[in-house]
Amino acid sequence: MKKTEYNVAVVGAGVVGIEMLRVLKQRNFPIGELRVFARSSRDMDVDGHKYAVKPISPEGFEGIDIALFAGTEGEKGAAVTYAREAVKRGAVVIDNGADFRMDKNVPLVVPEVNSADVKKHKGIIANPNCSTIQMVVALNPIHKKAGVKRIIVTTLQASSGAGKGAVEQLKEENSLIARAGFDNLSVSASGKSMPQQLAYNVFPHIGSFADGDYTNEEWKLVKETHKIMHAPKIKISATTVRVPVRTGHSESVYFEVSRPISVDKIKALLAKAPGVVLMDEPKNNLYPMPKDVEGRDETFVGRIRQDAFVKNGFWLWVVADNLRKGAATNAVQIAECVISSSK
Ligand SMILES: NC(=O)c1ccc[n+]([C@@H]2O[C@H](COP(=O)([O-])OP(=O)(O)OC[C@H]3O[C@@H](n4cnc5c(N)ncnc54)[C@H](OP(=O)(O)O)[C@@H]3O)[C@@H](O)[C@H]2O)c1
Q1: pLDDT value at position 343?
Q2: Residues 79 and 42 in one domain
Q3: Which of 48, 79, 81, 311 is the most exposed place for a label (fewest CB within 10 A)?
Q4: Are residues 82 and 169 in the same domain?
Q5: What is the pLDDT of residues 190-223, one digit of tens each?
Q6: Has residue 87 been placed in a domain?
Q7: Same domain, 307 and 256
């Protein structure tokens, strides 16, 4: 489908859908017609640009070349209901949710790691989970050189990772506590999108509890990393934690390698790795933080250290904007790969 312009649909007008509209504009994506779909219609202003959001329907995908899905997941969600309808009408679907990620007929792609997998698509390509994307962008260059064999990761995930409702919940909890003069740090917001209060709190519970009492968010880090890096033998254990940050996920990553490598070599690899910004100057108190990476497309890595007890064990601190590289930017990069790989 080599063309000069592509008709694009964005499904979902939540935090990811809005960021998709920004990223498409900022990257000058070659758009012919743009349609935005959600459950209900409305006019929406994003950075001064007006968008007419229309109710989603199968017919809405007639004539669409690329459909970027950022609606809800699950049985009655946008992707399960409409992705195949879009493909039937000739679109390539890039889905942000978890519904198709582990389907063997659906490539799961982070362009810096496995862009060649895009060519294997049969109509649907999946965008990995936000916490997986930033981890594999940082680890893949090291894996290629030294063979990563073990990963233990603790994530510190922002409220926007749980959608617009979670951002509203955090805002409301913060203002309730401020209004009460910080005397009572236990509050109840009117609408709850997360399982616990997030303001002045953290909780180790993202998604739902699954096998072995790990959450499904934790299993995503395991299974998605195996699929993207084509490395099913890496032993991965994860703990995913929600923290009272608006946007920007942080990760403390411990990993062990099979072939010896030095901290200097790891720094040199990351300094030239695609999509990575090395920010590691402990003497100057310089390391990545979520407040500084909001709106950025790169994955930031700092605090690179050798483990004090394990010879081939190392630590990284990895931060990225979950709505940009963790979702919208990665999806639009996939769309760019689709275009460049099509004849
Ligand atoms: N937030 C992140 O950091 C992040 C990162 C990676 C992946 N994701 C995934 O991206 C997707 C969107 O997440 P989000 O955080 O943007 O959620 P969100 O802020 O809650 O927004 C969801 C949007 O989807 C629309 N929607 C829901 N059901 C739909 C349906 N059946 N048909 C059409 N549209 C529908 C909603 O429409 P209305 O506005 O009309 O209600 C809303 O605009 C999810 O699958 C999520 O897991 C999110």
Answers
A1: 65
A2: yes
A3: 48
A4: no
A5: 878 999 999 999 999 999 999 999 999 999 999 9
A6: yes
A7: yes
Query: Would you report the helix, strand and coil content of the chain in percent, each value rounded to 5?
Result: 35, 25, 40
Q: What is the CATH number of the domain that holds 45?
A: 3.40.50.720
DSSP 165-216: HHHHHHHHHHHHHHHTTTS------SS--SSS--TT--BS--S-B-GGG-BH
Name which of 2, 64, 106, 107 is nearest 342 in CA terms: 2
Please work out whether the CB of residue 166 comes within 6 Å of at least one atom of ligand 1. no
Query: What was the pLDDT predicted at 191?
Result: 78
Ligand 1 centroid from CA 319, angstroms: 22
1: in domain: no
Q: 206 and 120 in one domain?
A: no
Ligand 1 proximity of 252 Cβ (cutoff 6 Å): no
Distance 293 CA to ligand 1 centre (A): 22
Two structure tokens written together for 342: 């099509």
Per-residue pLDDT reduced to its tens digit, 251-304: 999 999 999 999 999 999 999 999 999 999 999 999 999 999 999 999 999 999
Q: Are residues 164 and 288 in the same domain?
A: yes
Domain that holds residue 311: 132-321
| Segment 25-64, tens digit of pLDDT | 999 999 999 999 999 999 999 999 999 999 999 999 999 9
Atom number, ligand 1, closest to the C-alpha of residue 76: 31
Q: Residue 164 Cα, ligand 1 centroid: separation in angstroms?
A: 8
Q: Best mutation site among 16, 293, 333 for ligand 1, i.e. most ligand atoms within 8 A of its Cβ? A: 16
**% pLDDT > 90, the chain:** 95
The verdict on 165 and 254 lying in the same domain is: yes
| Nearest C-alpha neighbor of 130 from the set 285, 18, 256, 250 | 250
Q: Quickly state the pLDDT bin for 162 (edges 50, 70, 90).
A: very high
| Judgement on whether residues 121 and 219 belong to the same structural domain of the protein | no
Mean pLDDT over 91-106 rounds to 97
Residue 18 Cβ < 6 Å to ligand 1: no
Q: Report the domain count for the chain.
A: 2
Torsion of CA 13, 19, 20, 22, to 10 degrees: 120
Residues 18 and 144 in one domain: no
